[in-house]
Write a structure and sequence with these properties.
By secondary structure, the protein is mainly alpha-helical. The chain contains six helices and two strands; from the N terminus they run ααααββαα. The termini are far apart.
Length: 156
């Protein structure tokens, strides 16, 4: 196995042991007390080992291999691959936005503004119609009232 694989297996084993340790501690199990005493002794022995003392250097070397950083040619600074991917996606969306809008039947700000203008025009026309219609109805009511009065006078 490679060093990275070995390290990963060791980390997984340690994580599982820590989870078991905390489970036993939480349940206040008598086994916990025995494990706690053994763990203290084990920790002291392991920390004295030379390969454990140098493990942080190995972890840093391995993590350097896995970093998602690349050198930016223009600024001479590090840019993450996720940032580059986000920029590429944004660029693609900008270039293909018209096609996406058409394919997905999306409304743009222009569409909404146009729709609001049409709504306001229709609303104004409707209000004008209501006013003129109200005037006509009033006029007709007056005429009907006059006719009713004249009919009453003729009947009397």
């Amino acid at each position: 196995m490679e060093a990275a694989t070995t390290l990963a297996v060791i980390i997984l084993i340690v994580a599982i042991l820590i989870l078991i340790y905390y489970y036993l501690q939480a349940t206040n199990n008598p086994v916990y007390r025995d494990i706690h005493e053994h763990a203290e002794g084990f920790t002291a022995r392991v920390s004295q080992e030379e390969y454990i003392a140098n493990i942080s250097d190995k972890v840093n070397d391995i993590s350097g291999k896995f970093k998602d950083r690349v050198q930016d040619e223009d600024d001479e600074e590090h840019v993450s691959k996720t940032d580059l991917m986000s920029k590429k996606i944004s660029q693609f969306i900008d270039e293909q936005s018209e096609q996406v809008i058409n394919d997905w039947d999306l409304a743009t700000n222009k569409d909404i503004d146009s729709l609001l203008e049409k709504y306001e025009l229709i609303e104004n026309d409707l209000n004008e119609y209501k006013e003129s219609n109200d005037k006509r109805v009033d006029s007709l009511e007056e005429r009907v009232n006059k006719i009713n009065e004249e009919l009453k006078q003729l009947n009397d």
